[in-house]
Amino acid sequence: MNILIDIGHPAHVHLQRNVYRQLVADGHNVFVVAKPTRAIIDLLNLYDIPFTPVGGNRDSLWGKAWLQIRNFFYLWHFVRKHKIDIGVQGMTVAWVSRVTPMKSIILDDDDDEVESLFVKYAHPFADVILSPDCIKRKSRHTIYYAGTHELAYLYSNRFVPDNNVLKEADIKDGEKFFILRFNAFKAHHDIGAKGLSIEGKRKLVNLLQKHGRVFITTERNIDEEFRPYRLKVMPHKIHSLMYYATMLIGDSQTMTSEAAILGTPAIKCNSFAGRLSVPNEIEQQYNLCYSFLPEQEEEFFAKIDELLSMPNLKAEWQRRREKMLADKIDYAQFLTWFIENYPDSEKIMRDNPDYQWRFR
What we know:
Blueprint: E1 2-7, H1 10-25, E2 29-34, H2 38-46, E3 52-53, H3 61-82, E4 86-89, H4 91-97, E5 103-107, H5 116-121, E6 128-132, E7 142-145, H6 151-154, H7 164-168, E8 177-182, H8 198-208, E9 213-218, H9 238-244, E10 247-250, H10 254-261, E11 266-269, H11 277-284, E12 289-292, H12 297-308, H13 313-325, H14 331-340, H15 344-351
Parallel strand pairs: 1-2, 1-4, 2-3, 4-5, 5-6, 6-7, 8-9, 8-10, 10-11, 11-12
């Protein structure tokens, strides 16, 4: 088959890299188109995934809309030229599938209520939507699975931490250290969202450096006063560093979930706290992470103090992680099967959702 994978965020590279390799190994022609941001380009080059750059960055809603229209026409020509059978990922793929023979599979792990634009302008055009089973959608196009996007690359049989990253970050064995992640909130679903205040960030750094090393990573430019704490490891090694970290704290969605799934205590403070089913499940069912609204800064810091005083913190989180993994599938293996066998795979999952437990 001729398969198209659309990459619009660095997390999509991690989500798709194992799927891409398996599809290629199985003899399919796989084409990757990607937003040409530095983080995405670096990761694709690192994993030796050939790609075609499409689109760019715009912060305003109108700018994003213009880019979306331009991307649609480009992808339309691309799909026709390469005779694509199945397209995977997001909105543009769904649109193009309505005007070409290509079938579209949307991968969506956000709730309808927090991504109303995507639900309105992408979901109705997709042939099928794949979502974690903790989410409940209005769309009947949805197939649910027991997993998360992060498990496509952090599932126990896919991720092995590299302790050489500690030397690269100049961290001694057994030394406590904290990773702080600050979000840019520039995506279409982030409009009106906010995270930690600058005062909160200062307070966080001052608190944590009494207990260990502090490293800061951000989506865009780091504030001048925080530059001495900038994390300087290769992007593909961040998951290994998160695995060894004492805690991950900040206002990021994806990295909070990643850290929790790796068995590292994760705490976030942003406008999405309590509104998203995937992190809610990780928090409420498995007690691996905690979320607070910006106006709950006092409770946010109280939870950090509580965890700092907890004995055997990392060992307890690894135990909780194992409990969570026992309830989940290898999403990369499942997704590869679903793509290769579509549309039969959709019928199989509708008739027998337990079929997914083969992918563990």
